[in-house]
Amino acid sequence: MEISQNSDTDHRKFALPVDSEHKATEFRLFSIATPHMRAFHLSWISFFSCFVSTFAAPPLLPIIRDNLNLTATDIGNAGIAAVSGAVFARVAMGTACDLFGPRLASSSLILLTAPAVYLSAIANSPSAFLMVRFFTGFSLATFVSTQFWMSSMFSPNVVGTANGLSGGWGNLGGGATQLIMPLVYSLIHDNIGSTKFTAWRIAFFIPALFQTLSAYAIFFLGQDMPDGNYVRLEKSGEKHKDSFSQVFYHAITNYRGWILALTYGYCFGVELTIDNIIAQYFYDRFNVNLHTAGIIAASFGLANLFSRPGGGILSDLVAKRFGMRGRLWTLWVVQMIGGLLCLLLGKIGSLSGSVAVMLVFSVFVQAACGLTFGVVPFVSRRSLGVISGMTGGGGNVGAVLTQVIFFRGSRYSTEEGISLMGVMIMCCTLVILFIYFPQWGGLFCGPKKGVTEEDYYLAEWTAAEKEQGFHKMSIKFSENSRRERGKKGASVPVLSDKDTPPTIV
Questions:
Q1: C-alpha angle 468/460/254, rounded to 5°?
Q2: pTM score, two decimals?
Q3: CB–CB of 42/221 below 8 Å?
Q4: Which H or E run includes 418?
């Protein structure tokens, strides 16, 4: 159901065409229209800044390593710390988005973690280096607010595209920092004349300032939902102030969220792991210089310019014809191929071959991330934030486990660890077989007869809550989600929630 921006029943005007929830039904990349496209640009730029900050250290590790006398174990622990901090922070961020809105949740976290980036400049021991990386890593939880914000602003037919582009362009920070930090370091060291042990410290002020400015931009320029901020909507009665216990309960009891958390752990988690190890891997194994290692490592992260967005766009495209089942099948195939390429990457012994396989691998593993968040917005309407947080947190858990098992200490060589990581990707991707939506179906099974979108989403509300009208946004979301039936199911008659008692399977 799509309504005109000049609807007689609503005096609000939007620059983009919107649906019954006032979510944009079109995605116009080069627009900064308020509120939809402005939210998109604020979200990816702020997430980009957090990625730059979190991974500012790896490209300078050969210098930092000598200055702080870091051992291989110290470096491994710091890499783990950088991604482990966001595990619980992402779940907490999802809850904060559900209860307080993405604008306040995101800007607060970015501002709170910025001091850790500034403090990186005065780290003088392995333990201090580990702590600043740990607390800086909390900022990666802004990924959850980014995906929540896009799911709140864009209709189901383009939500995969919006999520893919905002997440992918934010992730670009992981690649961009591989170029930015060596460049900043060189300018300070060569042009200003600072010693190399002073230059790397000064360089950290650049990502710290960038992160601080992005926090203020979100707070003063952003808007939670198409119709306004949470505070105003709750005061006016347009939005129900939900209960934490109910939001959390409906998230943790939905098994689909747990499966997506696991699979995301071995696409995004792998991406985080590669961001931490790849520059040093090429530097040590192929004896390239620091600048060359940085360029190679940057090419992996910079593929997010098109790969993760491509995954989101592909998810929306296949959904037009095959619905949710198309989204699930595409995710399964793409992530499985990514695992195979990762296994191959660790087996190749030539520099040119490794770079070539790494580039193709980056496209598939990052596209799988975009495809995952083409599915996430449909798992739960009421608990979208927590489901997004669980999934995002799963990415960090995957990164932590992978680095602890394969890249900490000297049990495995780095190339062996990369190949074993590929095996893990393929094994964890198999569980997508168990995701089933009763109203749409799964990989091998069609929808359950007589079950509608209303049945699924209204099951998250009690009879008492429905009597008070708290479920109205879920009704609108159900109407707009009927596209997930695909072309075949588009003509199936819709049963009202009055005709069929809500059941969720």
A1: 165
A2: 0.83
A3: yes
A4: helix 414-429
